[in-house]
Target: Integrase
Amino acid sequence: MDPTSLPAPTSTQLATLPATPLERLQLTPELSGEAGTNRAEAGGAQIAAQNDVAAITAWLARYADSQATLQTYRRDVERLLLWAVQQRGKPLSSLTHEDLLLYQRFLADPQPAARWVMPPGKKLARSHPGWRPFAGPLSPASARQAMVILNALFAWLTEAGYLAGNPLSLARRRRSQTPPRVTRYLSHAMWDAVKEAIEAMPGTGAEASARERLHAARCRWLCTLLYLGGLRAAEVLDTTMGAFFCRRDALGVERWWLEVVGKGRKTRLVPATDELVAELARYRRAHELPAMPQFGEERPLVLPVIGRDKALSRGALHLILKEVFAMAAERMRARGPQWEAQAAVLASASAHWLRHTAGSHMTDQQVDLRFVRDNFGHASIATTSAYLHSEDDARHAATQERHQIGWGRKA
Model:
């Protein structure tokens, strides 16, 4: 029998079932939000949604041009909706301010774990019966970010005339403070351990198999891109080899650049230093490709070991880096117990840490903060102005001179 033809479970039945992805969730009219207690009066809505899932879908559609943002927002909204109907037994459009205070505490310890949390070390597909919406408790920072996203959802649904009010608008406002320093980055000692771990991978030896060699080359190239380019993981996945190009400056010096489309669909030019270009050539030769890409070449920046023309998934990229960080952490632990704390930090690192590491190390080397800002895409750039071209060239020279990966040597 088709499961979609079965009657939707009641709120009492839902309370005993494991959390279910939205696309498989069946809701009764009382849980759908069709008659939510926070629904706005009929006639004033600016969206056609008649229930909570349709309203959420309308909000998420605004982020369709940024897959990374869309996935993050969908995850946090899905968690709240599932908690509302399965744990609180009420639709999202009936949640009160008090409900959301309870939810914020729930994020720090999703219980019962069997319903909400995936088994340790597992990353299951949404279609798998063992899928759960959480990998574990959220850190305070992650929980705050989730509530920021939910506040944006409720504010938009209120403005769109779907909800009568935003239950999160009553949250206590924090006084504006100076943004905290970035803490999720690798010290120079940790970064050295990462490079040493990659250089010691099985694929770097003479007896390595072809697969091991390509995997080691990929790890080295991926870390090079994230560190020398300061790229976001999504930018690595969305950029092709053909985005590299060369142009001459006013003195006739050839300089290589990488054109990246970043957050908000803003284009920026990242200096492709001599080191980065050499590593690009090294990586391409490992795949038996010409040293430099052709203009408009569609190959992804990071190639799979099998199937060279398909970009990696976001999950695969993160798994590669987690493997590298785990190997580096083990090497640090082998030095003695005094390294345990740093090894634990290194083992928890992720792709975005390398972007923060790049920025931190560039400022350590006294690269002009304006150049760091532009390299990282914190401001728009223009490529047609002669003045800005001159500033670009100075930025390129400063980045190349002071920001180096230094494979084979310690900082």
